[in-house]
């Protein structure tokens, strides 16, 4: 436990100085509310009637009301896709940078085992993802107020809370990027797996995949909580835990033969 | 009797493709600097990797502080400092922060970290770079930070692979003096080099490795050790 605490302190300090994590987090936390606010503004009257019709066709008729529920629904849709990619990039960077920067050999011969170091990395990743999602929801709330939607109602508050849960679940799904970064010994393999994950999730959602698919379940639940039971969500947590366990095991047995 | 801090006996490791090391015997005692010299690709880095567990030996035994390397725990590794391939230093952090994190990872308590960092910054003449991000340092100064990371926790055994490769003459002198001071207080040092530089010349023992095998030793006080080195290597290559 002492070794883990030390590793957590070290990894937290590294993450605080990381421009990669900062840029990715800010892009998600401000980008999603920016896109959604622009969409709601467009639905409320900006642009031509043809453009508005195309927008409603893409985002769904539910956002036609251009109120808090529409804002939350649109934000959920965009967050579902963007968060898996952003958090996958984050996980790939946190784990893969040791190979990309050449520091992996220096993590041998230490009293703090590599399993403790990578466990701390995964905890830092999840904490960062939750912090980013909370910021996103905060910015989204401010955007709604700035659009003149008034105070959010009960359903909108529940929807905002679901976006936070969606972020946490996406961060768990994104742990598959940590596995890929470890096996591929670099950042890019993790980013590639994150990109494939998001495409697979989108395609399976469009194709009407069953909700127990871990890649698709968080988005389907956040959009329509009644459509997904607890089982698929537990499966998402199990998928994240399995990815974490595999990553830790791989780091524990890591060998640096050329 | 002098304590043996590192012992390799009959060690072998073969990479896919055939390169590696074979039948290596090597010891480092307390208070001793043991230099390992050889040409590029001779097997020096592989030996260092075997000592630190980066690759698992296929034959023989590797004991670090009297413990099989495969079973060595925190109490063993807290006494080891290493520099192999790349420094334990992150570009986005300044030199002092890197050294503080390295000290923590080497088992130094949070309260003792500032004193350990200040001392090693002074020792390797890095004080003026303490608040400079490592990515902004020259390759030589970044290497000095990596060496400081290996020294800061006061290890009893130092394993240094090509520690002078990017250092300027002043850096080499700083390192040489630091190693002599550590050895004088009982630390053991295994240092590799592909040429007989200033660090190899301060060694108590110089072993020559060629084509993955130990092929002899050199007299550190000899007048023409370059000639003797090439003679050993030539004999191995042509035998």
Any overview of this molecule?
Chain A is mainly α and 258 residues long. Chain A contains ten helices and no strands. Chain A has helices at residues 2-16, 19-43, 49-59, 68-100, 114-146, 154-173, 176-183, 187-206, 217-223, 230-252. Chain A is elongated, with a radius of gyration of 20 Å. Chain A starts with a helix and ends in a 6-residue tail after the last helix. The mean pLDDT of chain A is 91. Chain B is an alpha/beta fold and 239 residues long. Chain B has eight helices and ten strands. In chain B, a hairpin with a 5-residue loop joins strand 1 (4-14) and strand 2. In chain B, helix 3 (95-105) packs across helix 4 (113-123) and helix 3 runs parallel beside helix 5. The longest helix of chain B is centred in the C-terminal third of the chain and has 16 residues, at 169-184. The radius of gyration of chain B is 18 Å and the shape is globular. The model of chain B has no long low-confidence stretch (mean pLDDT 93). Chains A and B meet through helix 1 of A and helix 1, helix 2, strand 6 and helix 3 of B.
Keywords:
heterodimer; A: 258 residues; mainly alpha; B: 239 residues; alpha/beta; 8 helices
